Amino acid sequence: MSVSPIPRAFVVGHPIAHSRSPLIHGYWLSQHGIPGSYERLDVAPEAFPDFLRALPESGFRGGNVTIPHKEAAYALVDTLTPRAQKIGAVNTLVVGPDGRVRGDNTDAPGFCAHLDHSLGAGWPERAGGTAVVLGAGGAARAIVVGLAESGLSRILIANRTRARAETLAALAPGIGTALAWDDLPDALAGAGLLVNTTSLGMKGQPPLDLDLTPLPETAAVADIVYAPLETDLLAAARRRELAAVDGLGMLLHQAVPGFEAWFGLRPAVTPGLRDRIVADLTG
String of b and e for 190-222 (b: at least 16 CB within 10 Å)? Predict the structure, then answer.
């Protein structure tokens, strides 16, 4: 195993030029005066197994994994955290002192930390214990696991393909329930939290056409899309004077555990960091 005296980490994907992770980690490295580096690595899918096998000798302490490698990393790492096992995908790699590569998934705690920050402690109780999740992809898997860990008593998952929603509901036994898309109005009437995990509303994607009228006045609406920051869904929530939670905070908060593992310091998600990323998104 090769260990660099200067801590080095990375984000790996294909393509990778769009990733904001280097901005996030670079900001923290600068703020705390840590002589480390965080790099973008473009690795094609066919080369990813060799990349992972060579990681212990690379000098990197670990890194983030993004599309399309999250499921491959899950299958190839030496050990998995219980959360990553449940979600079935890895977004954070840590090279241990013994050279073994551990895979984690920080999207789940990152999303819930963003809800804590945006809505305040105790939001699960204020949500009446019930959340509605739109979509059943990889992000939805992480979010359902995170919501179940937060103490919610009921998670309703709506997806155009009912079978995928049922698979997702199984991640939260006794809590998760699959929902037909046509049943959303009735489900929203009893929900304290609505979460969009689909790409609908993202730049270049079709809009998310959803009537928020049935939601209670105390409900909150979250969208994991962060380009644009103000999606039509969040704009509709604000018109109803509902609490609106954008997708950028999840990106920022999910980065915290990895930074701590690689660089030895637990950073904070601050307004200054958010402003730095917003400037990049809108510049």
Answer: bbbbbbbbbbbbbeeeeebebeeeebeeebbbb
Give the H/E segment covering residue 15. Answer: none
184 alpha-carbon distance from chain centroid: 24
Per the omega criterion (within 30 degrees of 0), is the bond before 109 cis?
A: no
The residues, any chain, with a CB within 8 Å of residue 173's CB and separated by 6 or more, are: none
Sheet holding 193-196, edge to edge: 176-179, 154-158, 130-134, 193-196, 220-223, 243-245
User: Which residues of the chain register pLDDT less than 50?
Assistant: none
CA distances from 155 to 125, 164, 183, 217 (A): 13, 15, 14, 19
**What is the tens place of the pLDDT at every residue in 152-172?**
999 999 998 999 999 999 999
Rounded to whole angstroms, the Cα distance separating 141 from 212 reads 23
In sequence order, the 6+-apart residues with CB closer than 8 A to the CB of 17 are: 40, 42
Q: Is the pTM of this model over 0.90?
A: yes
Q: Is 259 within 8 Å of 25 (Cβ atoms)?
A: yes
> Which residues are tagged catalytic?
70
| Cα 160 from Cα 149, distance rounded (Å) | 25
Determine what percent of the chain falls in helix, strand and coil, rounding each to the nearest 5: 40, 20, 40
Q: Who contacts 4 (Cβ-Cβ below 8 Å, separation ≥6)? A: 59, 60, 61
DSSP state of 42: E
DSSP letter assigned to residue 59: B
